Every structure is written in C-alpha cells, then in structure tokens.
Amino acid sequence: MAFLTSFYAFLFYFAAFVLVAGLARKIIQYARTPAPLKIPTTPAPTTRTGVVFRMMREVVLFESLFRGNKWTWIFGWMFHFGLFLVTLRHLRYFIEPVWFPIQLIQPFGIYGGIAMVLGLIGLWARRFLVDRVKYITAPSDHLILGLLVAIGCTGLLMKFAFHVDVVEIKHFFQGLYSYNIQPLPADPLLLLHLFLVAVLMIIFPYSKLLHAPGLFFSPTRNQVDNPRERRHIAPWARELEQS
Amino acid sequence: MAKATFEVPALTQYTEVPPVTPGAMAHSAPFKSREEFQIPLGFPGELVEDWQTKAIAKMGELLGKYRSLRVYMDACVKCGACTDKCHYFLGTGDPKNMPVGRQDLMRKVYRRYFTLAGKLFPKLVGAEDLTEEVLNDWYSYFHQCSQCRRCSVFCPYGIDTAEISMAAREIMDSIGVGQKYCNEIIGKVYRIGNNLGLPGPALKDTLEGLEEDVYDNTGVRVKYPIDQVGAEILLVTPSADFFAEPHVDGLVGYGKVFHEAGVSWTLSSYASEAANFGMFIGSYANMRRLAQRIREAAIQLKVKRIVFGECGHAWRVAYSFLNTLAGPWDFLDPRYPVPQHICEFTYDLIQQGRLKFDKSENDDKVLTFHDSCNVARASRMGDTPGGQFEIPRAIIRATCNHFYDMDEETIRDRTFCCGGGGGLLTDDLMELRVKGAKPRLDALNNVMQEKGVTHMAAICAICKSQFTKVLPYYGLEMDQIVSLHQLVSNAIVLTPGPDDDEDEDEDEDDMPDLDDPNEEETDEAA
C-alpha cells in the first residue's frame, strides 16, 4: 500500500519531469533552428495577424486536414476536442478551489471522454481498412492508439461502472505539490489508468506526439507572405555574403 | 509519337485513387551524374569512401540549418491525409510515391540515428540503418518528387515533402551521388549563362529573327533587345523561351506588351536563364550562386526594374527567395516590387486601360488554364493572396472570348503538377512523367469533353515542355498547350511607331525556323 503510493508518487514526478524537460528541449531546438528561406504554402497571409488566424484555424479546426480527408478529420477532431474537454474536466483534481468555468465544464467532460474513445476507434479502424494508411502504419502507431484508448476506457469505466474515491485521488495529487505524499486508493482500474497516463507523458517528447509543438514551428504555416517587401536571411546564410 | 515501353494509363473522368502496389516504380531512376558535372558544383565526383558516416553527418548539418526539415522529421503522425494527393502516386500506385511514404524513406534513417526511440527500439518505430539498399531507394524515389507541394496543402502540420526531397538530394550530392540532368544544367548556366547552353551570339540571332518575324506579321517594329545598358527593365526568362514552341510565342508576347507600355527593356546574355535548378537539388550555395548572376546583370546593365517571364519554379525562387539570395535590391526603382512577374506587368497595363485587344484573334480556341504548381503554392502575384490565380485568369479573359476552368479540386492551390517539375524533365524519366501527368490530363480531358475546350494555357516552361511531350502518349495533340502571353500576343493591337509602314508588306520572310527545336534540348527548357 505504502509502496504503491510511493511508486506512483515517484512515477508522476518522473513523468512530469520528462514531459516538461523533454518538451522544453525540443521547443528550444525548433526555435533555435533557422528557417533560411520563405516557404509558406500559398496563398498565405501577408501580415502577422493573418498568420495568427491561420494558425488558430489549424489548431482549433484542423483546416488543412478538413480539406485533405473528411473521415480522418471527423475522427481526429472528435478525439482531440474530446481529449480537450476531458483534460479540462480533470483539472478539478489539480486545482483548489475549482474555478467556476471548470465546474461548468464537468458534464461536458464526460461526453468528451466518449467522443475521444469513439474518435480513436475510428482512427484506428482506418489503419486496418484503408490500404494506404495500413501501409504507412508502424507498430508504434498501433501502440499509441492502444494506449490512448486504454486511458479513455479505464477512465470511462471508473465513471460509469466502478467508482473510485475521487476525493482521495485529489488529496494524492494536491500532496505531490508540496512533497506531502498522501495515500492513493489501491483500485486496480485507477492504478492502470494513472500508469498509462504517466507512460503517455513520458513518451510524449520522444514520439510523433511532437506534432503538437511542431505545428507552431512549421514554416509552411507560420511564415508571413512578404518576401519581396522584407529581406529574410538566416544567420548561417548571411555568413556566405561575407566571403 | 506515342511509342511507349510501358503501359500508358487510360484517362478517366475523375482521377481514381489506385490500390497500393509496392515496388511499381522501383525501377525508375534518372541517369547518375558524372565527375565532370559534379565538380563545378562543389560536389565529389563519385561515391565517397565512408559514405554512410558522411551522409549521416550531412543530415545532422541540414537538421541544424533547416527548421522545416527538423520539424517535419518529427511531426508526422501518419494520418494518411496526404496519401492520395501526389500525382505520382495517383499515376503509379507505388506507396513510396505517397508523400508520407517518400518522407518515411528519410524519416526511418532520421529515427535510427537522431532519436532515442529509434536508437533503442528501431523495429517498433520503423527506424532503419542507412544501407546501400536504402540509398538506392532514396535515389529512385527522391527523384520521383516534383517538389510541387500539393501534399503540404493538405497536411495538418504543413509538412512539405519538397523540403525533404531537396534535403535528400543535397545529402546524396554531398557523398557523390548526383543526378545528371540537374547538375549538368547548372554547370551550363555557370559556363554559358542558361540551361540550354545558348551563347550570346545565338541569342542575338534568335532575337533579330523574332523582330523580323513580328514586323512581317504585324507591320510594327517591336524590339527584342539584349545586353542594352541603361534599359529600364531587365527581363529574365527561361531559356526555352528563345527557341521551343510554344514558349517562344510567349516571348513574342512579352515584347509586344513592353512595346505598348512604351518602356525600354533588355534581356541579358549573362543572366539568360530564369530557372534556378539549385532549388531542385536543395543546394543553397548553388541556388545563391545562380541568383547572384541576375544581380550582377542588373548592376551591369544599370536597369531600374526586374521582370520575370513565364516560369514556375523560377518564379518561386524569384518571388520567394531572390531578395534573400541576391538582395537587397535598394539600387532599383523602389516604386515597383522586385522582381515582378510578366503577368503582373501585363495585368497592371490592362487595369490602366493601356492595352487594346482584339479578342476574336483567339476565337479559334476554347481555353482552360493550368495553375503551375510552384506559382500556385509557393508564390504570389499582385498585392493580395491568391493573386497568382486571379491575375493570369484575368489576362485570359481580357484576351480570349472562350475560357472554362477545370474541376475546382484540380486548380488553384489544389492544382496538379504537370508531372515534369522539380528536375524530372528528362527523357530517362519518361515513364514517370507520363504517368504523373495523368491527374492533370484527366481534368483536362474532362473539360474538353464537357465544355469543348481545345487549348490549355500555362505559365511555366517546364509545364509547356512536359505537356508538349506527354500529351501524345494519351492521344491528345502536343500543340494544345499554349503560352499565356501567346494569347496576349495574338490579341494585342499594336500601335505603329514612326518608322513603321501602315501597310503590311507581305514579303517572304527569311526567318530561322522556330518550329524546329532541337528535340533533346527542348527538355532542358525550363
């Protein structure tokens, strides 16, 4: 019991560290790597504000994917928006007092959980049913989908079938903030759910989940279309001009 | 003409997505470069010793120099949105011609050498060593990408396979595995000034011939000047415009527009090439060296403005990169963008009402317009996004009575590449070029059946050369492709100058025969 609690406390410290440090490392790497040429996919916005709107449409609506493939868009958007609602709902375990908007979102978080799992199943089905998508699928793609589905299903089961003591869970996570380890309920479903979430956090900076920060650094999406008006030159390219 | 050693696909009303056929195009690879073409570009003449280590080191260098490559190697989630977007996949069914399939050829090596997961669990994440077999795949399939960027339109992260193809070609060049077509041509520009290897005197001859021809046809003396110091405008145009049909009809058109605008202009024998094949091989150094020629010519000829002729990838380099590669252009007239596209120039005059057209001159044609990939997705014309679609169409509408667009899903930023772009316009890739043209020609054929379209206008030397060559394979006529400024040339009403006779004299002309371009050279057009 005490061992389990200690193990999970350590696991979440470790996972949080890997997630934050790993992501920070990648983001710094992306930010430091120059983009030597103007390569926005045109038509592209001619102002910074326009680029912010373009990026918002990509992040919130998945605009390009919508144009690319409607099925992938439907399932992908269901999953991501569901995950977003679920994450907001889960904030109640991590903040005290719980902000009013987070209280309001609680029931939607449940629908989000269902949408998330359905979306994932749709995305997974494509990996078997569409020959082109099947061809490009690596074992790790199946594993990540499996991981997310398992996280979603264990979560939903705790909501609808096997309730756990959410107050104790909250105490556990609140305690982690001040290195005050509180007992975690020894519920197998909960332990599995939390373990998988920690795994997800750990693999995030080392997997294709990097698409999340990557999008913001994608030169075809984040560059302003103004090459004739403004001279754009990377530091390493400027050195060529000295010679 | 349509003699093929491979099966030419049948055109369909709408392009269907083929079933995945692994290895369908594994045999396709362009001729390899030789030492004589490699050395002038700064590349080793043959496969270097210890090439794996050197290739990986080069990849590491490029990952640090290009954010695009760095992010795109990591970001792909294998969603599949791009899988049915590449014309080469649609034409061949080879899964390594799916944009993600092509990217993965590099991504698996990236994962193996540059990521923790790939070092620890290569099988799990699809990571692979850079073996000779992988290198051969690279050479084959990174020369089956025309860098048209259609995939990048639909990718949720904007992953542009062109960036990856360019990097792959740069890595291969750096270990001595170059492509003959591109590298030989770049050398020709360094030695002679253009892709076709036309020396100054030959250009002068051609241009004098054009002047006589236009005078014979119109009775108006339109000038086609070259190396004229002090002219206001430097025209930089693909060298195909000097020789091949239908390119040269476009050049005739540019001259007529300049004539009507009343501005002085000149070509340059030193910078007699708009295309910049340095981009195709992903070599910033070579791209810059080629672009610098234009700067030197502009300074030497003391021009005030630079205008580019009809050329797709050239316009990408000109519009998007020229300021970076050869700027700043502070010695030119600041009232005009640098550079300008000939379509922008013509369109402005039309807007000002300064050009008169007799549209009936084009009544023998029903037109459609092919958006060239790099103009559509990698550049702009005019002040507003999308001007690259509207301005050429506005010029066609101003000069022709009959115009119909092709299927919406195959034009503007969703346009299909002609199948010959990105350094693939060479006879040793004929099968690829024919099959890759299918999506575009499906749409063309459809609009021919439904709207009675007879001709397709294009604004790119590669598109024009490619279509001229591949149309006959599909039972269409090679002269169905026209230059946009050919339409302008046909319809424009010229103002006679003081020394022009009003009565056209019908003397037999003694023009050099422009209808007989050197077959092999034509393909080096662009």
From TrEMBL, chain A:
Domain NarG-like span(s) in chain numbering: 76-212
Broad class of the protein's primary localization: membrane
Pfam families: Nitrate_red_gam (PF02665)
Keyword Oxidoreductase part of the UniProt annotation: yes
Cellular component, GO annotation: plasma membrane
Alphabetized UniProt keyword annotations: Cell membrane, Membrane, Oxidoreductase, Transmembrane, Transmembrane helix
Cell compartment(s), UniProt: Cell membrane
Membrane topology: Multi-pass membrane protein
GO MF annotation terms: oxidoreductase activity
Transmembrane segments: 6-24, 71-88, 108-130, 142-162, 189-207
InterPro entries, sorted: NarG-like_domain (IPR023234), NarG-like_sf (IPR036197)
Keyword Cell membrane included in the entry's annotation: yes
The protein's name: Nitrate reductase
Organism annotation: Thermochromatium tepidum ATCC 43061
Lineage per the UniProt record: Bacteria, Pseudomonadati, Pseudomonadota, Gammaproteobacteria, Chromatiales
